[in-house]
Amino acid sequence: MALLRALGAARKQVLGSILIEASIVGVISSALGVGGGLFLGSMLRRLLASKFRGISGNLARQNAIRNPRRTAGTAAALLIGVAVVSFFAVIASSLTATTNDQIDRSFVGDIAITGLGGRNGGFSPALGDSIAKLPEVDAVVPIRLTDVPVNGQRETLLATDPVALGKVLKLTVTAGSVSELAGDQVAVADAKATERGWKIGDRLTATYPDSGDHTFTISARFLATDLLDADMIIPKSVDDIVTAKPRERQVFIKLKSGVPFASGRAAIEAVAKPYPTAQVQDQNDLKTSISGRVNALLSIFVGMLALAIVIALIGISNTLQLSVFERTREIGLLCAVGASRPQIRSMVRWEAVIIALLCTLGGTVLGIAFGWAIIH
């Protein structure tokens, strides 16, 4: 859908952020390996009461504190895994909330028809023409996206009806007038114009695969919005000329005043039925589909990180098994003074629980902190 490009940008940001976070957490984990005595000793004493699960729990706590450096090294992998999962959860929640907020503030239309198949999908412009003839419809705004080189660098051009665009979308214009775009005029997003050093009146050359070079003149600037999914707007009439087989990525629709939403949507769905790649959506549907894309992206990373967490838990288990072999005489002494086999097993289990609990708490705090920092 139209926010796929924004989601793609977010994906790049998340990938970059995870590299930064992994480096920082790695430094922290190394610090724990060097100064684990101070960290784990103080944390375990503060978080766990001396009578935690009785004598077995108290012995488990003392065993965890005994060699803090080794405990910190054992726990580092689990801490990093939990931190990264928490980090992605915060980022995904922020992306969803931001997108929903933009839809609420920017989209003033009633219905959006989205083409399935990502940026390479879409449907015939005939669908929009048919919907425009419905008596329930006030405005139909087509959204076409084309990736072409502009002055040598690939950009995304959005072709639409500039006059009707304001009926379905609140667009902040900083210079010129988007609604008055005509002929070979183009509106450019402020951030893109600043990045490329473009000003009002500059001429840009776009190279289309179907028709070759086409020159545009910058006549307006606006603040970019994720709903448009592009930094440059041109009139649809120009796209009809330079593109051999135009396809519409989306169509935004505004119903006439007084038309019940249910009946208006039913009429539109009836017209869109012969187009299998066209999906009729309202605002809630837009939000749900975007949330689904974000959650799908999150699930991929969480699935991979879950394997890392399982490996980290196995590492804790192996370390404790070695610890049992190293403490053979100590365990024999405990048995000699009256400790039962269940108590010994409980002591080892609670030592694992203590380490895992500390890593989970620490990783969650680190993940939330890094997520908050990246968002801001």
Written account of the structure:
The protein has 376 residues and is of the alpha+beta class. The chain contains eleven helices and ten strands. 60% of the residues lie in helices and 18% in strands. A hairpin with a 2-residue loop joins β2 and β3. The chain is elongated. The chain starts with a helix and ends with a helix.
Give the arrangement of secondary structure elements.
Layout: H1 4-47, H2 54-66, H3 68-106, E1 111-115, H4 126-132, E2 137-150, E3 153-160, H5 162-168, E4 173-176, E5 185-189, H6 190-196, E6 203-208, E7 212-222, E8 232-235, H7 236-242, E9 250-255, H8 261-272, E10 278-281, H9 283-326, H10 328-336, H11 341-375
Parallel strand pairs: 3-8, 5-7
Antiparallel strand pairs: 1-9, 1-10, 2-3, 2-9, 4-7, 5-8, 6-7
Helix pairs in contact: 1-2, 1-3, 1-11, 2-11, 3-9, 3-11, 9-11
What is the alpha-carbon Rg in Å?
Answer: 30 Å
Q: What structural category arises from helix and sheet content? A: alpha+beta
Shape: elongated
Mean pLDDT: 77
- Written as H for each helix and E for each strand, in order along the chain, the element string is HHHEHEEHEEHEEEHEHEHHH
Give the N-terminus to C-terminus distance in angstroms: 26 Å
Helix segment count?
Answer: 11
User: Main beta sheet, described?
Assistant: 10 strands, mixed
* Helix share bin: 55-70%
Low-confidence stretches: 1-15, 27-38
Beta-strand content bin: 15-25%
Number of strand segments: 10
